[in-house]
Amino acid sequence: MNLSEQQKRTLLNKDRKERIVSPFEKVLSQIKMHTQLILTFLGVSLGILLGFTLRSANLSSETIMIISFPGDLLMRMLKMLVLPLVVSSLITGVAVLDPKASGKIGLYAICYYILSTILAASLGIILVITIKPGDKETKSEVGEGTAKSTITSQDAIMDLIRNLFPENLIQATIQQGQTHYTYEKSNSIIKSSNSSVLGNDNEKKKWNFKYNDNTNILGVIAFCVAFGMIISSMGRKAEILLHLFLVLNEITMKFVKIIMWYAPFGILFLVSGKILEIDDMGNTARKLGLYMITVILGLMIHCFITLCSLYFIITRKNPFKFYYGCLQAVITGFGTSSSSATLPVTFRCLEENLRIDSRVTRFVLPIGSTINMDGTALYEAVAPIFIAQLNGRSLNFVEYIIISLTATVASIGAASIPSAGLVTMVIVLQSVGLPVKDISLIFAVDFFL
Predict the structure, then answer these.
(1) Cα 362 to chain center, whole Å?
(2) For 144, how many CA atoms within 13 A lie in the half-sphere containing its CB?
(3) pLDDT tens, residue by residue, 114-168
(4) Do residues 384 and 115 touch, judged by C-beta distance below 8 A?
(5) DSSP letters for 374-425
(6) Which residues are CB-contacts of 203 (< 8 A; sequence separation ≥ 6)?
(7) Were 134 and a residue from 82, 219, 303, 389 both cysteine, which residue would form a disulfide, CB within 3.0 to 4.6 Å?
(8) What is the sign of the dihedral through the CA atoms of 320, 324, 326 and 331?
């Protein structure tokens, strides 16, 4: 039976009234949708507030350790998931993609990573030359450095290549190799016609390749990419094995969802504990304040201008919508200071919030969290020039180019853990003949940067 025009209008008005939602209900729905993001932001904010409030109490190191304990548990849980997540996501990401498609995506990703890292290092050099945070007067206030290193740039690059091909895959999951030198003293014997006389002691430099307790993530990634490519080439024969890694990836992501509800609580105490660990914040800020401002300004410009411009040029989309979808990963990264620990959260943000194809994220993210260290590259470009300014040494254009390139290479080799950039900074300093011992001058502000 056909409805009259009046009845149609009545039904239409009724539907419109039912669709009207009050402002309070809209706010409530938004809060429900972004509960974890809001809680994570509150965790960081309250952690900063708690840390600065408790500084006046002059707490003992044991008390600070107890306050940091919930944050330590969060770091342990997130790092626990990194290895199964990297293995399962990379193998499935490479295996399910067409070989041509995976090669194309990989080429685009690596080109973007190298470009953004070089831009970050170049920006850092421009800012530190313009602002000039270091001078001889600052050196007299800060003092002399005490750090020592015998590792050369050549050793660091060769270690990077060695770690790409681990001799033991199980060992690679818990240890990473690094060059070490030992010195052995030997007495030289001077022979004469009548007798033998002991001469001066000679030190003999001996090369060793030792393993440290740190996951060799580059070696694991290299193996997983090759493993996934072989699974893809085998076709139906390897379907069972592919299904195993797909299920492992789903299980790991379910773990991530559970841990994310604990994350705000853990980040609160993690941030407050880091603030309490700083010995003399006022004195440190007075001595190295301009250096900190230079690095932070560089990071802000790179994040909100350089990367946004690259995103807009390539995709013709609003970069801030993308940032909004990744906000929880950004806040977690700020609290944990580790790209590896943030990797599980980044997967969840990209796949659930931004609806990016999981085949792409599984392939690109594990590699990106290891070699795309823009912040480390900028930091490692600023610090050597700052140290050169402290020592009253002027660098030429060629040395600036060397710093830019070595900072890029060193950031790729940096482990995705807190303070890893300080270790690889030795490469950059030695490339232009700057004193390695002065690295210790910036230890105090490394957590902030």
Answers:
(1) 17
(2) 2
(3) 899 899 999 999 999 998 887 655 555 555 544 455 566 677 778 778 888 999 9
(4) no
(5) HHHHHHHHHHHHHHHHHTT----HHHHHHHHHHHHHHHHHS-SSTTHHHHHH
(6) 183, 184, 185
(7) 389
(8) positive
